[in-house]
Design goal:
Number of domains: 1
Number of strands: 5
Structural class: mainly beta
Helix content: 10-25%
Strand order of the largest sheet: 3-4-5
Order of helices and strands: EHEEEE
CATH architecture: 3-Layer(bba) Sandwich
CATH class: Alpha Beta
Largest sheet: 3 strands, antiparallel
Radius of gyration: 14 Å
CATH topology: FAD/NAD(P)-binding domain
Shape: flat
Strand content: over 45%
Number of helices: 1
Distance between the termini: 10 Å
Amino acid sequence: MTILYRRERKDMPASKEEIADALAEGIELKELVAPKSIRKTDTGLVLEMDLCELKDFDRSGRRRPVPIEGAVITEEY
């Protein structure tokens, strides 16, 4: 299982213990990525993600994730 998060780990609305437990259970955490598209293939799924950077602060007091133009990664599952 993989968690995709548009911000950094330190910005997650989870306790340090919850994050550590998830990682200890083998859950992968990808930071600064945003799902863009998902499609089914004959062999599984293809997930396309935008790489993000943090910009100005939003109303919640956290920095706003913004996709980096042209920075796209693709993974097959």
